[in-house]
Amino acid sequence: PPVGDLGRWASNYEKLFGRRPDLSQVRIPEKPEGVGPVRLIVVAKEIIEWTKGYPLEGIQEALKKHFRGWEYTDDLDTDITVNDRDPKNGTYAIWVRDVREADEEFANKSADDLKAEGHTGMTALERQLFEFDYSEEKGEHPDQQNITLCTGSRYLNGSVPSGRWCDSKFGVYSFDASYCYPSLRSRRVWA
Prior knowledge:
The chain starts with a helix and ends with a strand. It is globular, with a radius of gyration of 15 Å. 43% of the residues are buried. By secondary structure, it is an alpha+beta fold. The chain has helices at residues 3-17, 46-50, 55-63, 76-79, 111-116, 124-138; strands at residues 38-43, 69-71, 80-83, 92-97, 147-149, 153-155, 160-166, 169-175, 184-186, 189-190. 28% of the residues lie in helices and 23% in strands. It has a five-stranded mixed beta sheet, covered by helices on one side. Strands 1-4-10 form a three-stranded antiparallel beta sheet.
């Protein structure tokens, strides 16, 4: 595995939680070619223990030690119940495009449209971690003009979480699964 990426993620977790996860067994998916620059996101199983079983809330609170944050609901973990990938099943890694704004080709496509196409998109937890990793490295926040539709997750009511930088804070929002708009875009994931 790319040692630089794993070292960066160990450091990210230390900044967020004051601890380093064991990343020795993580399986790195094949790096996609021909899609422009890509960024590795490592989701550590230790997040579950470190957040006492509330990874989304735990990450959101950890992020707030570094920048302002807002969330649509009082308890992201109770309300976001469906995730395509979950650290409860072990540490895993994904690739996403290393770009500030969410993928342009998914503009005007709802989560329902993308599901019908077999699209693999980010989970809410992956988007939270992407926020930290990208801003730490680049010194700016992703999704300043657009919103990442986290098609890999669902709220209890079937709506779709999303993440963006707006009003000098990172927010986790909610959109109906049938809603589409030019600035609401999924980020493709290679898992």
